[in-house]
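Consider what follows.

. . .
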Amino acid sequence: MPPADEGEILIDGQPVTIATPRAAKALGIETIYQTLALAENVDAAANMFLGRRFDDPTRKSGRLRDGVATRQVIGRLNPNFKNFKTPVVSLSGGQRQSVAIARAIHFNARILIMDEPTAALGPAETGQVRGLIKQLKDEGIGIFLISHDIHDVFDLADRISVMLHGKLVGTVNKHDVTTDEVLAMIIMGKLPAR
């Protein structure tokens, strides 16, 4: 990863340097990509532990027993999730998002970076994912939500940062601006006049 051009990253008020994805994970930062980065041919438990060391008590003889940890984490996020043994390729978009989020928070994520979490989802699934995000916020997990959906932004964010052509236009408190003012930031690249 290239070094930052400017600014600094603070976690718990202390500056940190994040040179690799592994360093980010060690700091409790997880990313949920727009594509979800799931292995479609395996089930939820296999996806939760994909690329992780098996320090999990559900492991027995080199396999995940019944996916107890998977059932606990996904059950907390989405009590209606029942397809634990189904390959994720057969799951709905909302269920797939539940698996990706569970994978991140099971490993003690303190900060989630979510890239377009409701992209390509239907209205019911979008509502489900929005509910998951609100639940995680209520549990004290910090969330960086990357979205082009102004409704997601206003429904889920506390602060809104707008970027235009790779440059930061500014950051505003959601309660201090209207959707029209944020749209003007996006289109014209200017902060609202105050």
The first strand starts at residue 9 and ends at 11. The two ends are 38 Å apart (CA to CA). Residues 29-150 form a domain with the Rossmann fold fold (CATH 3.40.50.300). The longest helix spans residues 123-138.
